Structure formats: C-alpha cells, structure tokens
C-alpha cells in the first residue's frame, strides 16, 4: 500500500473516529437467537421469532393473527419468561388466553385507551427491560390510524430493542413499520371447520315414544351425536309437522371448531445456517396451519 493511500486512510479514520469505530475493519454479522412461535408450521417457515428485533404479524380479522400471538405467549410463559401485552383497544380476553395455555401469572397486561398511550407504554417497557416478549396489539385499531404512526417511532423502538433478548411483536391489520421490521408475517384466513352437535330433522314418533334423529338425507344420525328430541306436544309454535317429521327452525346443528389459516413471510432478514441465524433480506414462501378452538 502506497504512502499516499496510507495517508488518506488515516485521514478518513480520524474524521470518523467519533462516529464509527474501525470503519475499515470487517465485522462478521452477529448470530441472531430465535425463539419458537408455538406453531410448528410457522417455525419451519421462519425459524422462529428473532430476539432483539421487531416482528410484525398483520392480517384482517379472523386471519389467525391472534392465534399466533397467543401461541407465542404460551411458549414464552411456559419457558418461565415474563411477557407484556400492550392492548391498544382493551380487546384482550384473559379467559381465552388461559384456555390457550398462556400463564397469566407471567403476563403483564397494559390496558390503553388509544394508540398514543400504547406506543408510550411499549417504549417504556422496552427501555425498562427484563421481558422475554413484548406484544403491541394494534389489531383492532383502524388501519388509517395505524398508518398515521410516524416512521421514526418504529425506528426508535427497533433501535431500543436491539442487542437485548426481548422479542418485540406488533399485531396489525397491515404492515406499517416498513424496513424497521426484521420479520413480517402476513396472515390470511382459509376454510373453517365446524363440529356437528345435533340434527335439525327428527322423525315424529307415536305418542309416548322418542323420535329418531335423521340427517337431511334420511340416513340415521351417527351415534356420537346427541339428537335434539322434539315431540309434537312440546315443539311449540315455531315447529311444523310434515310427513310425520318435525322441522325445527332453531335446532342446534353446528359449532365453530377451528379454521385453517395461511401465513406468508413477506419480509425476513433471517437465514438459517445450521444452528445459527444471520440477517438477510428476502421474500419467503407461505405455509398453512390450523387454529383449533378449545371447548
């Protein structure tokens, strides 16, 4: 290296010494620790939720975004980590979370009145530290309000959570953090599953005998179901009798049992290399998973 080149390098290093440490030295990208989401299909797709980074889970209502959040909270609280949920619209249901497996004793629930309070609370929690996962739930916030959040707010939160073991998750209708998010999951609803509980059509039996339940095709009902027993004397005014069969307009038939959802990583800076995870900007394929309702 010539003397002129050495002199120029020393001049540049002297000018940048207060801003950048060793600007001409190669620094290897750090390995990123990741934590499972609690949904095996999403873990295979993304490798898990990155620590020290912002993850966005976006999608419309009933797309599975809350199911993924509850699964992540369950996994972190079961691992004895303290988590925080910043609820911008006071929509969190503790009973449903407990049924999903979340240990409420390990969860701090911050109830807010508006988005401004939610952003301030999330910023204070990140600065305070000590949380394994901090979730900012903006899922019920109107999209136009979430879009109005200034981009520097997302940059500040991303900067605050860097180099910490905290997982920062934002649940929204659409992605708003732009390049501040290290992982963006777009959720989409697919077909729903229903559980049969009783039949709508029953045979009208002779007086004193119980009617025999049938399906609409006329075949006997499966033994697992409990048919609704309806007799002409007790059916009431809302039931009509035709061809010795009773039709009830209010008979219980099906209950929602769950749904299949689609998750797509539209932005990810995570690339698996053995047990290590390094940053890389890329678009990944999607995967389907099933969200089940517990009774």
Topology (elements, then pairings):
Elements: H1 3-16, E1 34-35, H2 40-46, E2 49-50, E3 53-58, H3 65-78, E4 83-87, H4 94-100, E5 107-111, H5 115-128, E6 133-137, H6 143-147, H7 151-161, E7 167-172, E8 183-196, E9 201-203, E10 213-214, E11 240-242, E12 245-247, E13 254-273, E14 276-282, E15 286-292
Parallel strand pairs: 3-7, 3-8, 4-5, 4-6, 6-7
Antiparallel strand pairs: 1-2, 8-13, 9-10, 9-12, 11-12, 13-14, 13-15
Helix pairs in contact: 5-7
Q: Looking at this structure, what is the CATH superfamily of the largest domain?
A: P-loop containing nucleotide triphosphate hydrolases
User: What profile does the largest beta sheet have?
Assistant: 9 strands, mixed
Identify the CATH class of the largest domain: Alpha Beta
Report the helical percentage: 10-25%
Describe this structure in words.
The protein is an alpha/beta fold and 295 residues long. The chain folds into 2 domains: 34-193 and 257-292, Rossmann fold (3-Layer(aba) Sandwich), CATH 3.40.50.300; 198-252, no CATH class. The protein is 24% helix and 31% strand. The protein contains 7 helices and 15 strands. It has helices at residues 3-16, 40-46, 65-78, 94-100, 115-128, 143-147, 151-161; strands at residues 34-35, 49-50, 53-58, 83-87, 107-111, 133-137, 167-172, 183-196, 201-203, 213-214, 240-242, 245-247, 254-273, 276-282, 286-292. Strands 3, 4, 5, 6, 7, 8, 13, 14 and 15 form a 9-stranded mixed β-sheet that branches. Helix 4 (94-100) links the parallel strand 4 (83-87) and strand 5. Helix 5 packs parallel to helix 7. The longest helix has 14 residues, at 3-16. The chain starts with a helix and ends with a strand. Mean pLDDT is 76; it is low at 199-244 and 271-285.
